[in-house]
Amino acid sequence: MIWGVALLWVLPGEPIRARGLSERERYLAVARLRTNNAGIRNTHFKSSQVKELLVDVKFWLLFWIATLCMIANGPISTFLPIIINSFGFGPFNSLLLLMPCGFYSGTMCLFFCWCCYKFKNVRSWLFCVAETIAILSCLLLVLLPRDKKGPLLFGAIILPVVGASYGVLMSIQVANTAGYTKKSIASSGLFIGYCVGNFIGPLVFRPQDAPRYIPGFTVVIITSFISIVLMVIYRVICARDNRKRDEVGAESFNNAFNDDLTDKTNAQFRYIY
């Protein structure tokens, strides 16, 4: 809570209000945002952008992807210590063996961020890689004998990669949504999907299914696979829309940032995937 208050006080809402920047530096920061065609300077609520979002298939794809992929967070946040305990470790040792999970998850998040920065249009593929790792983890935890503690522990440690996949998902949503109102509602919608997935996750891991939790891991495998399919569809749609705009062509429009155009109404906008 203290950290949140500190960020609210220190971080500016927009570059033009950033402390420590000269007038020229503020202008350059705003100009840099303008090149993104994000259209966030106009902060008035627009119902037309809400209507546009509600019929935008790309938003709904991301919403369901967030919901499905976050079901895997159920065993991570609630049942992972219990699962490791079922391998034959004591409660204290199970907690100690969870330590590599946090390091691994953080490292994967940083690595995915680096890949997104270094390579063009790899975000959807990175998401698919993360979800494939999650599927592999579930298969190891379900199929391996209980006496194979090393491979079982490896499967448990690599499961938290879903945190990195959701980070990639958020970056896709933010980059591919323009318009102040549309971007705000879309971010909230993605978070709702995140919450729904986290709500469902623990419910599919029932005490009577211990120690393998086969039904729960089966649900995670299926939902992770479906999220991969939906992400591939999302990538195809974005690539198709970019290709159509490139074929039509349009004159440069430098006021998209000021006029609060959405990704649909700004012909210069290009989706990343």
UniProtKB/TrEMBL annotation:
<dbReference type="Pfam" id="PF07690">
    <property type="entry name" value="MFS_1"/>
</dbReference>
<dbReference type="InterPro" id="IPR011701">
    <property type="entry name" value="MFS"/>
</dbReference>
<keyword id="KW-0813">Transport</keyword>
<feature type="transmembrane region" description="Helical">
    <location>
        <begin position="124"/>
        <end position="144"/>
    </location>
</feature>
<protein>
    <submittedName>
        <fullName>Uncharacterized protein</fullName>
    </submittedName>
</protein>
<feature type="transmembrane region" description="Helical">
    <location>
        <begin position="59"/>
        <end position="84"/>
    </location>
</feature>
<dbReference type="InterPro" id="IPR036259">
    <property type="entry name" value="MFS_trans_sf"/>
</dbReference>
<feature type="transmembrane region" description="Helical">
    <location>
        <begin position="217"/>
        <end position="237"/>
    </location>
</feature>
<keyword id="KW-1133">Transmembrane helix</keyword>
<dbReference type="GO" id="GO:0022857">
    <property type="term" value="F:transmembrane transporter activity"/>
</dbReference>
<feature type="transmembrane region" description="Helical">
    <location>
        <begin position="96"/>
        <end position="117"/>
    </location>
</feature>
<dbReference type="GO" id="GO:0016020">
    <property type="term" value="C:membrane"/>
</dbReference>
<feature type="transmembrane region" description="Helical">
    <location>
        <begin position="150"/>
        <end position="172"/>
    </location>
</feature>
<keyword id="KW-0472">Membrane</keyword>
<feature type="transmembrane region" description="Helical">
    <location>
        <begin position="184"/>
        <end position="205"/>
    </location>
</feature>
<keyword id="KW-0812">Transmembrane</keyword>
